[in-house]
């Protein structure tokens, strides 16, 4: 069964540092998403991406965040200057329509 | 405001007992509805989804859910719980329309514990 792959599974970074979270969506999917889950809280939508541009973003997705599809397979989330409150599990998802997602296993980001 | 409510934070059931996890949403139209399961340290696995048609939908692992428009509910059920069902369960809604591009709105989740 096709999977969405996320790397790394766990990343620790110092406050103020830049991090890049990586995702390999399912190959024939066209829609890509990032969600995050702060420990003990609900999963929250960050951004959706289609046709090489952001199609929608939430209030959380401020100027510190950016997404990119640098090649035909990877989809990345960059946080320019991490804050303590960015510590969370970040999930990538993809779909071949804009519903019916497949989620990755997540990257746990810890900002110290 | 648009919201998804899972009123039970934590439920404990005995193995073999039946299970019902509640989910209510507040939207004007019928959204697309999903249930996901998350085992510790794992990602989100889709159990089932409802878009239209038959209001009782079957999913993986023996789960089913019933959409009730009059109650704005989409409760998840399983007739006989197995110890491996212990996990956290999330109800999610795709509100559709109003500019939504298909992003999901999640409930806070219900943690299921299973007693031997």
Task: Detail the poorly predicted runs of chain A.
Answer: none
> What gyration radius of chain B follows from the Cα positions, in whole Å?
14 Å
Q: Estimate the global geometry of chain A from the Cα principal axes.
A: globular
Mean pLDDT of chain B: 89
End-to-end C-alpha gap of chain A:
36 Å
Number of helices of chain A: 0
Termini distance of chain B?
Answer: 41 Å
- What is the average of the pLDDT values of chain A? 92
Order of helices and strands of chain A: EEEEEEEEEEE
Describe the biggest sheet of chain A? 7 strands, mixed
The shape of chain B, in one word, is globular
Count the helices of chain B. How many? Answer: 0
Number of strands of chain A: 11
Number of strands of chain B: 12
Explain the overall architecture.
The complex is a heterodimer of chains A (112) and B (116). Chain A is 0% helix and 51% strand. Chain A is built from no helices and 11 strands. Chain A is mostly beta strands and 112 residues long. Chain A has strands spanning 5-7, 10-13, 19-24, 31-37, 43-50, 53-57, 65-68, 75-79, 88-95, 102-103, 107-111. In chain A, strands 2, 4, 5, 6, 9, 10 and 11 form a 7-stranded mixed beta sheet that branches. In chain A, strands 1-3-8-7 form a 4-stranded antiparallel beta sheet, with no helix packed on it. Chain B contains no helices and 12 strands. Chain B has strands at residues 3-5, 10-14, 19-21, 24-26, 32-38, 45-50, 56-58, 64-68, 73-78, 87-94, 105-106, 110-115. In chain B, the strands form 3 sheets. In chain B, strands 2, 5, 6, 10, 11 and 12 form a 6-stranded mixed beta sheet that branches. A 4-stranded antiparallel beta sheet of chain B has the order 3-9-8-7, with no helix packed on it. The interface between A and B is medium-sized, with 28 and 23 residues.
């Amino acid at each position: 069964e096709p999977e969405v792959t996320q790397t790394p599974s766990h990343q620790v970074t110092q406050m103020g540092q830049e991090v890049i979270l990586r995702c390999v969506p399912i190959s024939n999917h066209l829609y890509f998403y990032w969600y995050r889950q702060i420990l003990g809280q609900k999963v929250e939508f960050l951004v959706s991406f289609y046709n090489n541009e952001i199609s929608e973003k939430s209030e959380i997705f401020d100027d510190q965040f950016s997404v990119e599809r640098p090649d035909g397979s990877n989809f990345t989330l960059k946080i320019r200057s991490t804050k303590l409150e960015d510590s969370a599990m970040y999930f990538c998802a993809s779909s071949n329509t804009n519903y019916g997602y497949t989620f990755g296993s997540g990257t746990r980001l810890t900002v110290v | 405001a648009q919201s998804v409510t899972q009123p039970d934070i934590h439920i404990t059931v005995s193995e073999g007992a039946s299970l019902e996890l509640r989910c209510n949403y507040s939207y004007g139209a019928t959204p697309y509805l999903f249930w996901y399961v998350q085992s510790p340290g794992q990602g989100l696995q889709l159990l089932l989804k409802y878009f239209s048609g038959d209001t009782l939908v079957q999913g993986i692992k023996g789960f089913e859910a019933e959409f009730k428009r009059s109650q704005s509910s989409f409760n998840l059920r399983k007739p006989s719980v197995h110890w491996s069902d212990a996990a956290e369960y999330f109800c999610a809604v795709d509100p559709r329309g109003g500019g939504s591009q298909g992003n999901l709105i999640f409930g806070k989740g219900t943690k299921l514990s299973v007693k031997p």
